[in-house]
Amino acid sequence: MSWSPQMRESRRSRGGQADMFDSPVLSFKLVCDGNDPLTNAFVKTRKAHICCICTGPIGAGIRVRRETRRSADGRKIETSHVCQLCADAIAYDVANGDYSPAAVASGTYWVRTDARYRLARVARA
């Protein structure tokens, strides 16, 4: 297929079609260690994984957020996957979170995301 230079440049600057909806979820820090992840994107899985937030199963062929980063000691690469339900909770909290000083001080501004983390704590108990 032959693209005109103008069309090629507009497609390049526009990025992916789902970027507008994915950016709130991708901006959420899975690990707050001050380092940026090596990769941070939405991908379609090829095999089963475990969600790093709710520890629920993720099947093959599901669209998930994947983040790859170096371990704390820098010796190995760690990959985290976030299931679609947890990604939806993150997107909701980013859009509707209460960022008042009182909510931030009490840690209650990630309402739905914290609820997903609680699922994992209850399952482990």
- Assembly status: single chain
Coarse structural class: alpha+beta
Radius of gyration: 17 Å
Q: Span between N and C termini?
A: 56 Å
Number of strands: 5
Strand content: 15-25%
What is the mean predicted local confidence, pLDDT?
A: 78
Q: How are strands sequenced across the largest beta sheet?
A: 1-4-5
Could you describe the largest sheet, including whether it forms a barrel? Answer: 3 strands, antiparallel
- Along the chain, the helix and strand elements come as HHEEEEEHHH
Structural description of this entry:
The protein has helices at 5-14, 19-27, 84-96, 101-106, 111-124; strands at residues 39-44, 49-50, 57-58, 63-70, 77-82. It is α+β, with helices and mostly antiparallel strands. The strands form two sheets. The chain has a three-stranded antiparallel β-sheet with strand order 1-4-5. The longest helix is centred in the C-terminal third of the chain and has 14 residues, at 111-124. The termini are far apart.
